[in-house]
Design goal:
52 strands; about 850 residues; 5-stranded mixed beta sheet; about 55% strand; 22-stranded antiparallel β-barrel
Length: about 850
């Protein structure tokens, strides 16, 4: 009887016990749970964060007691206990504050506000508005990235004084850098079509902890658009097109893409065709000497009466840089499947190809002081072919080992071809390389506590490169081919195998204001090359039987702290190490140039850096004006940098006989230390809902220690651009968008150009610095009256205007670039920039 009374009493008290506590759910703008959202009272007597489901159990409070719900990057909400009983699901919306804009960055879609380093993000809307020709141009237009060009079909990004194989490029989580990325200028960025991009992310500073080798200056992540599912059972079709014309290079481009989405699967297809004519440089020389960069003559060859005739032709308009034209086609196909509520698959196929791409800086080389005495009749890259097939698997179902898993498997095929022929010769030399890359990357994330404040990220990374190389000489009169030229890489085949594992710990404060991240990465790199018995260079017998092998192991680390205060302060500090493992281009490239031949060095090790950086930012609001200012300072120390020097063959000799020419043998060695430091400043000002101003400024300096006699001399480091930046004022209202942009570069004096060697005057012992032969391209700068390189790169500035009008489903865009028709050449470039350029484009949605 007593038990029945107790049961009855519990039943009667049940409603009152339920009122004593409450479970609330906090979600974002897409109704997805927000993990770690802070919920607290003003007196902090009640304070906790939401769990993995965005939920939190609250004790009974007074009806008028207020609870604050806060999540970084979202608008704060304040609700009473009484209001929470009516609304147990609380939706937070992203804040309008640009400093705390909610965006995801990198392969793992990490929230940008948590990352402790400098980031630039370029959206598809930014790209569409200014209509850049290539992704490299888009980086130069919108981010703090300096772009170098050696030809019309070029664009080599420089980040914090690092370029080429010291900057890692990634597309959809798959690394583009392969085993033959060289240390000079690279144009591979243009093989990513800007029309297929959802956004570009520039992550400055060392990225080895997450991405492994090559990320010394930073990471450029190209993120292509994602197929969209339908919200209706019938499915949805959406398509888009654009066409563009530009006057400076007679560019014609057309693009079409289409998305089909059902509720469980979706497809997105994209194709772009671009034809670029010869670039016309400006007529206003401003700070550059009159006539610099002109193309007064060019060579046109023809076969007549079984004889090859190279005719030197005078250019009707010397500012038209004949030899910069090329065509390009880009294709992308994505298929996305949602297997269930927690598993998502995305298949990704990309293909880019081009016509032959002339190497303009080589076509303008002279054999003497006579402008008609051109050295090359032909120098061009064959079609730039890039193929990618990848499968991305995302799993969000929690397990004991992970709460989120991301697996990316990929195959890539890259073709590189080089052709050159001297004016007086009938033989055209060629080098052909085929690179196949297989890779797999596994990222796992695990929340270590239900409060969501402690997380572990860990994973594995594998990358395998196979390189096949051939070379020869073709006689243009009888089409015969001889194999007297050495292949660029050993003809027996080469491979590079990389394995890595990493782990990092992440913590955030209870109020989601502070974030801490620390981690380690282990990398193992194995390279191997086998020489063919028919190579024109006679190597040691071991080179043909056992091959040449190089192994390297590296452990890198990183730690970073971020604080974003309610008062608008932004503080980020980080310290990290990074490395670049010697690839096949460093290890076994064979190159004959200027009486020297490069040979392998099996003892080559990684280049390593230690980097520290600090960012301080502040957001202030004055009436209708919101100002955001931040500045970043960084310092990077580079150890064991790879340089080329005299090197002995296995028999101890320093010379090699090839085609009756005695060549001195050199190889890459770890013999250089250097340091790079600099600063970047950014200002954004929203004066009202329609006016916005933005500017950025980038300054970098670098020095290397060059051995001379019994000491080391600090000399300028290569790849260091001068001061550069941009400023833009935008007006946007209703259907109109207008923007004026100022782009500029400071002077780069000769004294700041890289030094390749040192000598001294016999009488005075004054040091003489040789600055020719480096990737700074001093020979591409103006000459003084006495024929010496005494100017370096002069400063330049351009004024640009862009406009867009929306007709509903149609957008009309127009841009007037380099309005003053300035003739200028960016630092280290071998081609002058476009002069006054009118860009007209139309896009439409269906």
């Amino acid at each position: 009887m007593l038990n029945k009374q107790i049961q009855l009493l519990c039943f009667l008290l049940l409603p009152f016990s339920l009122l004593a506590q409450m479970t609330i759910t906090v979600v974002d703008e897409d109704n997805q749970p927000l993990i770690g959202a802070a919920v607290y009272t003003a007196d902090q007597k009640v304070a906790n964060v939401t769990d993995l489901d965005g939920q939190l159990e609250l004790p009974k409070l007074a009806d008028n007691k207020k609870l604050i719900i806060n999540y970084l990057g979202y608008e704060e909400k304040v609700l009473t206990w009484q209001e929470l009983q009516i609304q147990t699901t609380i939706q937070l919306l992203p804040t309008a504050n640009d400093l705390l804009e909610v965006i995801v960055i990198g392969r793992k879609n990490e929230r940008a506000e948590r990352l402790p380093y400098q980031i630039d993000r370029i959206t598809d809307k930014d790209i569409a508005f200014t209509q850049p020709s290539t992704s490299a141009d888009a980086l130069g237009d919108h981010a703090g990235v300096f772009i170098q060009k050696s030809q019309g079909g070029g664009g080599s990004p420089i980040l914090r004084g690092f370029e080429a194989n010291k900057v890692l490029m990634v597309v959809d989580g798959v690394r583009m850098n392969n085993a033959i990325y060289r240390s000079g200028h690279l144009q591979n960025a243009i093989t990513v079509d800007p029309a297929m991009l959802e956004q570009m992310e520039v992550i400055y500073g060392p990225g080895s902890l997450t991405y492994g080798s090559d990320a010394l200056g930073g990471v450029i992540h190209f993120r292509t658009k994602t197929p969209q599912f339908s919200t209706t059972p019938k499915g949805d079709w959406n398509s888009q097109f654009f066409t563009r014309y530009a006057t400076a290079n007679n560019e014609k481009a057309v693009h079409f893409d289409v998305n089909y989405g059902s509720q469980r699967w979706a497809s997105w297809s994209s194709v772009t065709y671009s034809r670029f004519g010869d670039i016309r440089a400006g007529d206003n020389y401003q700070n550059f000497p009159e006539g610099f960069g002109e193309r007064p003559f060019y060579v046109q060859s023809r076969i007549e009466n079984e004889e090859l005739i190279g005719e030197v032709i005078e250019n009707d308009d010397p500012n038209v840089q004949i030899g910069t034209a090329y065509d390009q086609v880009d294709f992308l196909q994505k298929l996305r499947f949602q297997l269930n509520s927690f598993t998502d698959l995305t298949a990704n196929i990309q293909y880019s190809t081009s016509s032959d791409v002339p190497r303009y800086d080589q076509l303008t080389r002279l054999s003497s002081g006579d402008p008609r005495d051109l050295r090359f009749a032909e120098w061009y890259y064959g079609p730039q072919d890039r193929f990618l097939a990848s499968l991305t698997t995302s799993v969000t179902k929690p397990t004991p080992f992970y709460d989120r898993a991301l697996l990316i498997t990929a195959f890539q095929k890259i073709a590189e071809e080089r052709f050159d022929r001297r004016v007086e010769r009938v033989e055209r030399a060629f080098q052909l390389e085929d690179v196949s890359v297989v890779s797999a990357t596994l990222d796992l994330d695990k929340v270590l506590h239900r409060n969501g404040r402690h997380r572990l990220s860990y994973g594995l990374d594998w990358n395998f490169n196979d390189v096949q190389s051939e070379a020869g000489v073709e006689n243009l009169l009888d089409n015969s081919i001889s194999r007297t030229e050495p292949t660029r890489y050993p003809s027996g085949g080469s491979r590079m195998n990389v394995f890595a594992a990493y782990a990092s710990y992440k913590w955030n404060s209870r109020d989601s204001i502070q974030y801490l991240e620390a981690g380690l990465r282990y990398s193992y790199v194995n390279t191997f090359s086998l020489f063919g018995v028919d190579d024109p260079i006679q190597w040691s017998s071991d080179f043909y039987t056992n091959g040449v092998r190089n192994q390297d192991e590296q452990v890198t680390w990183g730690i970073g702290w971020t604080a974003l205060t309610p008062g608008g302060w932004q503080l980020r500090a980080s310290a990290a190490s990074a490395f670049r493992a010697p690839n096949l281009d460093d290890f076994s490239k064979i190159r004959v140039n200027g009486g020297f031949v490069t040979i392998p060095n099996p003892n080559l090790t990684s280049e390593r850096t230690i980097n520290g950086e600090l960012t301080i930012g502040k957001v202030n609001t004055f009436g209708n004006t919101r100002l955001q200012l931040n500045g970043t300072a960084f310092y990077t120390y580079l150890q064991d940098a790879i340089i080329r020097t005299d090197f002995a063959l296995s028999d101890g000799s320093f010379t090699l006989l090839l085609n009756d020419e005695l060549l001195n043998t050199v190889a890459n060695v770890n013999a250089d230390n250097a340091y790079v430091y600099g600063a970047a400043a950014n200002l954004k000002a929203n004066f009202s809902d329609v006016w916005r101003f933005q500017t950025n400024l980038n300054w970098t300096r670098g020095r290397r220690f060059l051995p001379y006699e019994n000491r080391e001399v600090a000399v300028p480091l290569a790849h260091i651009p001068p001061l550069y930046g941009r400023a833009a004022l935008r007006y946007q209202k209703n259907k109109w968008q207008l923007e004026g942009v100022l782009r500029f570069q400071g002077e780069k004096p000769v004294e700041e150009y890289a030094v390749t060697s040192i000598s001294s005057e016999s009488m005075s012992n004054d040091l003489i610095f040789n600055r020719l032969g480096s990737s700074d391209n001093l020979d591409e700068t103006p000459l003084c009256a006495d024929g010496t390189f005494c100017i370096g790169t002069p400063a330049w500035m351009t004024y640009n205007l862009y406009a867009q009008y929306n007709f509903g489903k149609l957008n009309a865009r127009i841009g007037l670039e380099n309005m003053m028709d300035v003739h200028y050449r960016p630092f280290a470039s071998g081609v002058s920039a476009a002069g006054r350029n009118l860009v007209i484009g139309v896009s439409g949605l269906f």
